[in-house]
Amino acid sequence: MTDNNYILKAHDLNVFYDSFRAVADVNLNILRNNITAIIGPSGCGKSTLLRSFNRMNELYAGTRTEGEVLFDGQNLYDKDVDPVEVRYRIGMVFQKANPFPKSIYENIAWGARIHGFKGNMDELVEFSLRQAALWDEVKDILKQSGLSLSGGQQQRLCIARAIAIQPEVILMDEPASALDPIATLKIEELMQDLKTKYTIVIVTHNMQQAARVSDFTAMMMLTGTESRSGTVIEFDATNKIFTRPADKRTEDYVTGRFG
Amino acid sequence: MSEKARSPRFHYDQNLAARTKTGQVWKVVFLGSTIIGILALSTLLLNILNSAFGFVAYQGKILPSTLAIEGVPLEQQTRDQLLTLLQTNLSNGAYNKLNNEKAFEDRSRADLHALVLERIVRYKVVESWSLWDSLTNKSEIKSLVASEFPDAELKFKSWLTLDFLASQQSSEAVTAGIRTAILGTLWTILITILFAFPVGVGAAIYLEEYARDNWFNRLVRTNINNLAGVPSIIYGILGLAIFVRALQKLTSGEMLGMVDPTSSTGRTIFSAGLTLGLLILPIIIINSQESIRAVPQALRKAGFGLGATKFQTIWAHVLPNALPGILTGTILAVSRAIGETAPLVVVGASTAISFDPGIFSRFTTLPIQIYQWTARPQDEWRHLAAAAIVALLAMMLSMNAAAILLRNRFARKY
């Protein structure tokens, strides 16, 4: 496999909240057009690691990032890289669906408009909603508020919104943790459709979900004795992580033999 | 089962009666506070209404009956007869002045009749009574007027009339009105809003969205909170020093070539509006900051996550969602500004103004007018003050209502 197939490469990545090191020495390569899951116990830095892929950590006061994240060979943390550009090429879907308090149509259109989209907006809205498997449910109520949708629909709206600006990578931070199993299933099916066009990195607490949807899995865990920081202890094909993990701690975790 | 494992017996319900009783006592206390508030407010309203209506005894300098021509009383005289009356009873100078204001040929009979009453008969208030007195002591008042002022007319008068709202100031309580004061208040508030709203909201956006959390910004924030508590007279002194004196060239309109002939100093509506703007700026900033802070962080993240710049996120999502709160704060602040008197006295509000004020003219406002009228010794001015208070309250309430409607239009849920 050539180097070119890796769309994102974290290299000796460290993230600090003030003096506390939340993520320590992470080296991780994300394969293009695949779904990579990041799993691990609560508070081990999964979300922080995910946010460092599109520089969202900078929105939190007191965070500092060391090391590099290469996106198509370009270090995202170089001085001349604009975080705004990073975030529109690497989109994000959050744990709690957060549609704008605007119409469904406007939720999709706004992102495109701020980037100077000049084409046919109606087409783009339909395309994005179709991609997010939401079109049939909302095509007659495009003028209604995005907040009038159900939780699962709202989350798919957020995915549609991210797709509308054509990112190369979509980061998903526990996108289904607040949804019921049916809505979750829809999101998971959607991810399978999306991976032909996009690269997806997903943080999840749900190990069955990681096993079902992902091609690769990164196992994170708190390590160190004095100040415990999260790091990736094992990274491999999902199949292998869940059947023959190399690390004893991974095995304990995925088989549920943890605390 | 061993002795140790058995749980000890608690009597959780032992003090239930006492707790319920405490709750009831406090409920009564809270109800009492509400009643005191309602009583205070209704006393205020009753007091104002009591003064705004009531019997008035008028007496003209000349008895109207003496103005009858050939047995025709004043009320039934023709237009020409009224004109003759004016010609014979007014000095040439006064007659010509009135003619210059509006030619007599163009004036209606009613207009001439009013002029005769105002200029020749010259009604004066000789005695006035409150609404309560008028309702309860009607016969006594009538006999009193009959014995003490046999020439006077007794009328039940509402001091608040359309004429009162539309007339200029006057030295006679009968003809005095609050037109200049209303216009002065409206202009002043317009300038206050135009100055304080954008500056206040802008400062709030900077402090909440851009400013880093360092000692300097914390100091700024603390001091804005302190500024909101500074007595208004001090803002008056500040306005006098800055707007009236230091920026006289600007506030007198000289810089814009718009000097009002009635004023060449900085004691203008412009200065007054800016001073009141300074006064309410901290209130607007604090309220706007709170509304901006209340916008869910998730919305900002959603914006940033789509690659929006900070400004795009603030403009499209933070501000629209904070706007209802910002408007509420602004409504409260402007209501306060409408009622401010002390700083305007310092900035140099006049009281006697007999022309419609503009931005760069001398000015008076409703609270100034009210303050000035209540300070006069004669009773009739206090009735006028009460009527002006009703007008001020009505103006304030309608502005608030308009602002609330505006706010509800913007109100959204998230």
Provide a descriptive summary of the structure in words.
The complex is a heterodimer of chains A (259) and B (414). Chain A has 259 residues and is α/β, with parallel strands linked by helices. Chain A has helices at residues 46-51, 83-89, 104-114, 121-131, 135-138, 151-164, 181-194, 207-213, 238-243, 248-254, and strands at residues 6-17, 20-31, 35-39, 63-71, 74-75, 90-93, 169-173, 199-203, 216-223, 229-237. A 6-stranded mixed sheet of chain A has the order 6-7-8-3-9-10. In chain A, α4 crosses α6. The longest helix of chain A is centred in the middle third of the chain and has 14 residues, at 151-164. Chain A is globular. The mean pLDDT of chain A is 89. Chain B folds into 2 domains: 56-157, no CATH class; 179-410, MetI-like fold. Chain B has 414 residues and is mainly α. Chain B has 17 helices and 3 strands. A 3-stranded antiparallel sheet of chain B has the order 2-1-3, sandwiched between helices. Chain B has helices spanning 16-52, 79-89, 92-101, 109-121, 131-136, 138-148, 162-166, 179-210, 215-227, 232-246, 248-251, 269-293, 297-305, 310-339, 342-347, 366-374, 379-410, and strands spanning 53-60, 123-128, 153-158. The longest helix of chain B has 37 residues, at 16-52. The two termini of chain B are 55 Å apart. The interface between A and B is medium-sized, with 28 and 21 residues.
SSE order of chain B = HEHHHEHHEHHHHHHHHHHH
| Mean pLDDT over the full residue set of chain A | 89
CATH topological fold name of the largest domain in chain B: MetI-like fold
| Subunit organisation of the chains | heterodimer
Shape of chain A: globular
Strand order of the largest sheet of chain B: 2-1-3
Q: What is the number of strand segments of chain B?
A: 3
Shape of chain B: extended
Helix count of chain B equals 17
Structural class of chain B: mainly alpha
The helix/strand order of chain A is: EEEHEEHEHHHHEHEHEEHH
> What amount of the residues of chain A lies in strands?
25-35%
Taken together, the total number of domains of chain B comes to 2
Q: Care to count the β-strands of chain A?
A: 10
Low-confidence stretches of chain A: none
Which sequence of strands runs across the widest sheet of chain A? Answer: 6-7-8-3-9-10
Q: Could you describe the largest sheet of chain B, including whether it forms a barrel?
A: 3 strands, antiparallel
